[in-house]
Amino acid sequence: IGEIESAISITIRAKSLIMATSLDSVSYPLTGPRLTRHSTAKVMEEAKHVSISKENLDKLLNKWIPEGSNKEDFKFIGWNDLDFHLVQAENSEKLVQYIFILDSLNFCFWPNPGFEYDTLANGVKDCLVNNSDLLSPDSLMAITSQDVRDKLFGGLEICLLDERTRVLQEVGYAVKTRFDGKFENVIKAAEGSACKLVDILTSNFPNFRDHVTYNGRQVFMYKRVQILVGDIWGALKGQGLGEFSDIGELTTFPDYRVPQILNEHGVMQYSEELTEKITNKTVIPAGSTMEVEIRAATVQAVELMKVELNKRGINWNSVEVDWLLWQKGEEVKDSIVPHHRTLSIYY
After folding, report:
1. What integer pLDDT is reported at residue 21 of this predicted model?
2. Residues catalogued as catalytic
3. Which helix (H) or strand (E) is 340 found in, with range?
């Protein structure tokens, strides 16, 4: 009984911390990442299938980041450390174009063996270097599914091919008609604000509108749109077009890998019913209660991690915490509990 009471107490404290860090200091109007932070906190107030263990979160941080550690003691695998990324570009427009196209297609890798994020990143890089005209806004507007499969992915069969093609057509049209045909104009329009850039992207590019309804309320996940902003910041090292005065406003990017590693370490805990579905690799429908709770808990768990890291004098933003978790998850992805399966263009 004592153990049960302790577990309940820990869960209540975790929920209280979520509310304290996400709701009490709300500034209106809620826009961009603030919508993600606020709406996912509301989900966790009512969640039935997913909870966050503050006790296990502390244990994990003690394991990975002992007391007395400094930010400089840790090296992330950042944008420029991954050789499948485009790192050296002839100009900022080319690099922004690469990141824009990459993160427009950065979703749903699990159904097709052999198709991973690095496959996508390499495919877009090779195409931009060797056949850049194919990825200009004019060409994207007319791109075909066969072009996407053969010229971007070397004939590899990939899931949601028609949706990926539609997304590229949409991107080409919006950049051409609303931003004078230049990808960097999208970034410049934000005037150095990450939050404003998220709003610009979700307003002009429907494929980034990653939101659902949960118990009658709108919930904003904004995975790909925030990772695009984070990638611009990381690739350009926070300088030039990558300088955002409010980069700390971004939340983590709720997808598959981060909840997988957090679940493995007991930070995110699942109901018996949800655990069975994930273990059996049963597809969990996009927008379902279980799927929304997994993604909401991912955001809020990272928010709690940032609070605890701050107490240790390590002031990481969500992009950096996400990089750490993604890195840790990639290292052991095939030997730990499976990730959840959801067919979606959002992640």
Report:
1. 46
2. 255
3. none
